[in-house]
Specification:
The chain has 13 helices and 10 strands. By secondary structure, it is an alpha/beta fold. The chain has a 6-stranded mixed sheet. A 4-stranded mixed sheet has the order 9-8-7-10.
């Protein structure tokens, strides 16, 4: 606890913690059991760091995981980083991170430490640890503008929310204007939905992270609602549809849902940056984004061109009948 007290202070001076959104976008729910850890590339966290210069600490308290990073505020070098699935114990895990950071940097004067917090669970915790709260959409926007200035759009899938950010150039000022859209009211089309559907399909984690996207045989999955999506997945499993086809259908439904709803009639601008754990760990999801995102110069409607795939003509009779059965089951 004494170590943690070194980190409790007000008056933050620099919001460099927003960089953790791109540095630590690593999340795959099923692979992180309680107490499991994924550490980004950084110096050995077990050896105390003799550093006495100023540092900035960024903490991201998400819906399913807590991430923390210690960076040099001048060079932006990552000095320490870690992330854990918090099992709904957000505050406890934040405290544990602070204690570990205090142990990793025993020589740091407390006046040279600044902390910043973001994420859906960051607002209520921030005042208790003297951290400046940064709303997560603003955090991602600032991080991308700083670290990836050539990016025109951002698509992020989190544990229980999804967001799309489109940067447009202001012709008058020459600066950028960010158009943001976020789904934080429902977990449909997010990591939580994927997590539950993977359990329903019964694929081992080692196989899920190796699946490639194949849209030759896709089936109906209602991505507008996580519960309906699970129902459709169960129906597909009962119908004997191969697991890989089911996962590809889920990825397609999630991507199309986010493209049609979160873009709100806007066209994604080149280059598109994919963020968030599902995009980081699931190759078939990334490949699906690459196939479904309209190419530069193409006209993107509010509903991206699903009809161009000629789904019914390329599917077998069995696939079409299963699709109709799934559609009826989801509306029942």
């Amino acid at each position: 606890m004494d170590r943690a007290k070194l980190l409790l202070f007000p008056q933050p001076i620099l919001t460099v913690s927003t960089g953790l959104k791109t540095e630590l976008s690593v999340y795959f729910p099923q692979s992180l059991s309680k107490g499991a850890r994924v550490t980004a590339e950084a110096p050995n966290v077990n050896a105390p760091n003799p550093r006495t210069e100023a540092v900035a600490i960024g903490i991201d308290v998400g819906s399913t995981t807590v991430k923390a990073v210690v960076v040099d505020p001048v060079t932006k070098e990552i000095l320490w980083s870690d992330y854990l699935r918090h099992q709904t114990k957000q505050a406890e895990f934040v405290l544990a991170f602070l204690e570990r950071i205090g142990a990793a940097f025993p020589n740091l004067p407390k006046e040279k430490i600044r902390t910043f917090i973001t994420g859906s669970g960051g607002s209520p915790i921030g005042p208790h640890i003297g951290s400046k709260f940064v709303q997560e959409v603003n955090a991602v926007t600032l991080a991308v503008e700083t670290l990836h200035p050539d990016v025109g759009s951002v698509c992020e899938l989190g544990g229980q929310d999804a967001k799309i950010i489109i940067f447009k150039k202001n012709e008058e000022t020459g600066g950028k204007t960010a158009i943001t859209s976020m789904n934080d009211k429902c977990a449909s089309g997010t990591g939580a939905t994927i997590d539950k559907c993977v359990i329903k399909v019964g694929l081992p984690n080692e196989q899920v992270v190796k699946i490639g996207f194949d849209d030759s045989k896709l089936h109906h999955v209602a991505a507008k609602c996580g519960v309906f999506a699970e129902t459709d997945i169960v129906n597909l499993v009962k119908s004997g549809i191969p697991s890989l086809e089911i996962m590809n259908s889920l990825a397609d439904a999630i991507v199309m849902q986010n493209l049609s709803v979160l873009t709100r009639g806007n066209t994604l601008r080149h280059k598109v940056l994919l963020l968030g754990g599902p995009n980081t760990y699931l190759p078939f999801l990334r490949d699906c984004w690459r196939k479904r995102i309209p190419r530069p110069g193409a006209i993107a409607a509010t509903r991206t061109p699903r009809t161009c795939r000629s789904r019914s003509s390329s599917s077998s009779p069995r696939t079409r009948s299963t699709t109709r059965r799934s559609a009826r089951a989801s509306t029942a």
